[in-house]
Amino acid sequence: xxxxxxxxxxxxxxxxxxxxxxxxxxxxxxxxxxxxxxxxxxxxxxxxxxxxxxxxxxxxxxxxxxxxxxxxxxxxxxxxxxxxxxxxxxxxxxxxxxxxxxxxxxxxxxxxxxxxxxxxxxxxxxxxxxxxxxxxxxxxxxxxxxxxxxxxxxxxxxxxxxxxxxxxxxxxxxxxxxxxxxxxxxxxxx
Length: 190
Fold this sequence. Notes:
It is built from 3 helices and 6 strands, in the order ααββαββββ. By secondary structure, the chain is an alpha+beta fold.
């Protein structure tokens, strides 16, 4: 809000009175410019705070979007891992029920499981304790984990998984312990 004081003096001396009115008009201009400076400074602070608020809002928006993608990817990977665990449990149950005596029977079983879940399972590998592939179904793929790493993680009851890029897209690969019948129950496969 601007305000100014205009005072007029009437004096008998015209020249002197004119000088007084002029000096009062200058004082009025100085007061108006001081008020304008104060208001302009307040307006600049307001603009600064608005710009800081907009900047903070953009920062929070970017943070929220990145958190959304991180969390949604994590939830998707966790869901896929649960599905894989249930598939492996079902496969192990089928192998135990069938009493698969040879490698060919195990290969046939994992081939059926992989074909049944073609859209969900890219490949299944069963490796022996030395890392040699015992049975395989699906995409041809090299070992995703070294046997030492897998054994260490499983021994420490830690999951062995990662995501890999393939020609079929990005896939979640996880290693599970599996006991095959016929080896006295001592052969551990992944």
